[in-house]
Design a protein that fits this description.
The structure holds 2 protein chains of 2 kinds. Chain A has no helices and 12 strands. Chain A is mainly β. The radius of gyration of chain A is 13 Å and the shape is globular. Chain B is 0% helix and 54% strand. Chain B has no helices and 11 strands. In chain B, strands 2, 4, 5, 6, 9, 10 and 11 form a 7-stranded mixed beta sheet that branches. Chain B has strands spanning 5-7, 10-13, 19-24, 31-37, 43-50, 53-56, 65-68, 75-79, 88-96, 99-103, 107-111. Chain B has one domain: Sandwich (Immunoglobulin-like), CATH 2.60.40. Chain B is globular. Classes of the chains: A mainly beta, B mainly beta. Chains A and B meet through strand 6 and strand 11 of A and strand 4, strand 5, strand 9 and strand 10 of B.
Amino acid sequence: AQSVTQPDIHITVSEGASLELRCNYSYGATPYLFWYVQSPGQGLQLLLKYFSGDTLVQGIKGFEAEFKRSQSSFNLRKPSVHWSDAAEYFCAVSPSSNYQLIWGAGTKLIIKP
Amino acid sequence: EAGVTQFPSHSVIEKGQTVTLRCDPISGHDNLYWYRRVMGKEIKFLLHFVKESKQDESGMPNNRFLAERTGGTYSTLKVQPAELEDSGVYFCASSSSRGGYTFGSGTRLTVV
């Protein structure tokens, strides 16, 4: 069965430090891959997506993610976090662009001042 | 362009009552999706409309949930009668034929 694993429920990072959020998926083929963020009181906002091509994807707010087929991973990174990055981050996969998304459980990012 | 609008943003109802959630997609988006996140769990797919037709409703939990999309515009999701386990955040998303989901802010439903 298709699944997405985000192994870290919470991550605490100091402001200005680097960040990596992990995402692994189980899927028969290379799916469409997404990272979304939900800030407190807000909806789900797309950070970036990977469909094909360059495996290093740039997104909004200074985030990037790297698709590694051999590891079935799509980890999200940011070189220097800001207090405003405190939010919950979700990894999701889909077999195509207009199909249901399968979601990870989410990772809550806490920023230490 | 206006985004995906959901209302109400919050709803508190008693067990056994009926609640109707509404989603207004981005104009021209044929695809409309409903998702739900129950407390502490993953976001789960409920159903997918293409225009006014239900493309996939495999995620609907039971027959207490009824979704409609009259005229292929806005959609409603009715829960009747509501149970405690229906509490959660209900998200709506829309996309055009080229793909790319846009999500609404969600409706937080609390059944007491």
